[in-house]
Amino acid sequence: MINFNFENYTKLIFGKDKELTVGQEVKKFSNKILMHYGGGSIKNSGLYEKIVASLKEANVEFIELSGVKPNPRLSLVREGIELVRENKIDFILAVGGGSVIDSAKAISLGANYDGDVWDLFEKGKNFEGSCVPLGVVLTIPAAGSETSGGTVITNEDGGYKRSTGHRTMRPQFAIMNPELTYTLPDYQTACGACDMFAHILERYFTNVENVGLTDRLCEGAMKNIIENAKKVLENGNDYAARAEIMLSGTIAHNDSLSMGRIGDWASHDIEHELSGIYDIAHGAGLAIIFPAWMKYVYKHDINRFAQFANRVFDVEIDLKDLEGTALKGIEALKNFFKEIGLPVTLEDANISDDRLEEMAEKRTENGTVGNFVKLNKEDVLNIYKIAIK
Amino acid sequence: MINFNFENYTKLIFGKDKELTVGQEVKKFSNKILMHYGGGSIKNSGLYEKIVASLKEANVEFIELSGVKPNPRLSLVREGIELVRENKIDFILAVGGGSVIDSAKAISLGANYDGDVWDLFEKGKNFEGSCVPLGVVLTIPAAGSETSGGTVITNEDGGYKRSTGHRTMRPQFAIMNPELTYTLPDYQTACGACDMFAHILERYFTNVENVGLTDRLCEGAMKNIIENAKKVLENGNDYAARAEIMLSGTIAHNDSLSMGRIGDWASHDIEHELSGIYDIAHGAGLAIIFPAWMKYVYKHDINRFAQFANRVFDVEIDLKDLEGTALKGIEALKNFFKEIGLPVTLEDANISDDRLEEMAEKRTENGTVGNFVKLNKEDVLNIYKIAIK
Domain named Alcohol dehydrogenase iron-type/glycerol dehydrogenase GldA: which ranges (chains A, B) (predicted)? Predict the structure, then answer.
């Protein structure tokens, strides 16, 4: 275990009808806010009206900025920053999933920064100011952005998808009602399950030794996602399973599972090129990239991959063939992704192999990616090639 | 899973030499503090001098109150409250284990309350003010008090050991260097391991259904304590194992493992009578009481006890004899406690059966204890009797 600091101040407000408390939660921070959301879905579901009623009841004034799309765009972030500045807004409420929350976080960071917000991507941690405080009503369990201190934004100028973070970027509260996720399409539910699973995998594959507690916590959380992802796809109105998945998305990415570890994050980086260019859902991209990454790197630590196979997928450890045990775990993961309806190859997602070289080049132009194994352009290209079919 | 709120703002500062940063951490809150600790051990180990040097370097003025004993006393808390008030102190630094931290928390609560602090025990949550902020340098991994929002104090007048909590009672930071635990006597190390294990057990045995994620997290954390408690007792200077145990004590009691659950807490209540009267270490008392409680209540939910046996102690599930599986788990737990050198009966701890009736009476004078099974005086007495030998 390496030395670490851990701090996560986000208050979780979890359960049925909790969105009705949003007005009183916001009121603790502000009387005038920016309400940020996507588009029609929260209006169709009736959530929009509930939020508005709760804000009005608490006498909270709000300005709206809608239009956030999956893989949220820098241009909308810039628009939000202008709105916050012009209207002297001191709190942002994000109503939606990871894209909406990430967009809100980028606004909250940029609004208090003198220069252009894109400057801060990949170097935002050095920003000495504070983000505008924000709160969340979560509608999609996936990204874990509701308690994380990071954001991922796509710059349309060049298709760059880049991340940044700040210690003051974690939301002040996250309201999480599993019932709000009943209406999610199956594909989006599955993408979400893959995204949270991948957040744990990124933390799990580490070179840091003696991380037994967080290993066990990671393994338990992964087992539980496997069990409940299948249940919610069988019955979208299964409150218990929806609750398990929603809470898992938070635990996967609130940094408690990475205490004292160094995560990998190559698969996320490699996937970002895919979804930056092809606009595939991030979770679907991860279902393609992660198994390919695993096949490429597993020899670096066969024991860890065998442990993964055994403890997460109940693969019996074959001491005479640990490599076989490890490979069975990778195959089991791939099968799980398939079983919940995700693509596991570029072919499955109708992505051609035309631009693999370009993506590998762009991804590594600032250096290698990943920590478990440091990958250069050729490595990244090889992983894309493994992912073809 | 039931509706819940979760908030834990304590910043963990974990690793080698981290106690040297205490001055700069305190300085963020205050220039004049109360430093609260036990007695000789932090002076013998050299920790006291390091803390003093760090505070002085940061120009933090401090007043000292030492003398905290295991099962911390109300009289010293009252003394601390006077000191804080007289000296207009606005931050308390606890250097020690759970007893010191609990004593500091009681001072931090009472200093801002107009009446006598004992009024607030068992009804402190209704206190509308705020606690004086506090920070911790942890020296004993056990109670989990370094990030919890509760405290347990013994009133010498009558031997009442009672708890209270407050939403502002969590420490602002907890500095945790596993090296500081190298010098703990084996018995204290074992008591600590039992205490943290019991904190998980109290959360694990619940009537709330569909708590799969937190079940898995609890089970993983328990498995890891079993593994590492043995290692630290074999080699007290094993940094990796000491780190696992230290972090486990925090995770066990930071409330993340009880999200959406209702814990039991009868065993803690029943044990508090023991250590309130006999001054036995809390962890040792729990090693006696918990297996007895389990034997008394397991029929209430044999499946849960069988799951515990299987997932925590690798007992194979016998579908034709789930009760046998459940009982093997209880036996395995008892053996684990024995193996690390703890008493598992009142006889082992040289406690006679003279006052069992009195203890059962006192414990239940305000009503039943426990949630998994609600226990009246007769039940509590039966559990004490099971614990005799």
Answer: 10-178
Residues of B with CB below 8 A from A260's CB? 14-15, 243, 247
The residue type found at B240 is A
The 10 Å Cβ neighbour count of residue A157 is: 9
Handedness of CA B263, B264, B265, B271 (dihedral sign): negative
Contact B213 A221 (CB under 8 A): yes
Residues of B in contact with A243 (CB under 8 A): 1, 210, 260
Listed in sequence order, the residues at least 6 apart from B231 whose beta carbon sits closer than 8 Å to its beta carbon are: B238, B240, B241
**Which of A20, A227, A247 is most worth mutating to test chain B (most B CB atoms within 10 A of its CB)?**
A247
Alpha carbons A193 and A189: distance in angstroms, whole number: 6
Where are the domains positioned within chain A? 11-180, 186-386
For residues B314-330, give the mean pLDDT.
Answer: 98
- DSSP bridge pairs for B138: B96, B176
Supply B364's token pair.
């239940």
The two three-digit tokens of residue B81, written as one number: 């409250």
Range A186-386 has CATH code 3.40.50.1000: no
CA angle A259, A261, A265 (to 5 degrees): 110
Closest CA to A13 of A29, A1, A24: A24
Is this prediction's ipTM beyond 0.90? yes
Q: Is the pLDDT of residue B267 over 80?
A: yes
Distance of CA B236 to the CA centre of its chain: 21
Measured between beta carbons, the chain B residues lying within 8 angstroms of A12 are 4-7, 259
Place of tokens 């807490």: B265
CATH architecture of residue range(s) B11-180 = 3-Layer(aba) Sandwich (3.40)
- The Cα A63–Cα B265 span in angstroms is 47
Q: With an 8 Å Cβ cutoff, are B216 and A210 in contact? A: no
Neighbouring residues of A98: CB distance < 8 A, sequence distance ≥ 6: A140, A142, A143, A144, A145, A195, A282
Query: Around A74, how many Cα atoms within 13 Å sit in the side-chain half-sphere?
Result: 18
Residues listed for chain A: 389
- pLDDT of residue A122 exceeding 70, the answer is no
pLDDT at residue A125 in the model: 67
Contact A221, A282 (CB under 8 A): no
Residue B159's pLDDT band (boundaries 50, 70, 90)?
A: confident
Q: Are strands A134-138 and A92-96 parallel, antiparallel or unpaired?
A: parallel
- Helix ranges restricted to H, chain A: 22-27, 40-44, 47-57, 74-86, 98-110, 186-204, 212-234, 239-251, 266-278, 282-297, 302-313, 322-339, 356-363, 377-386
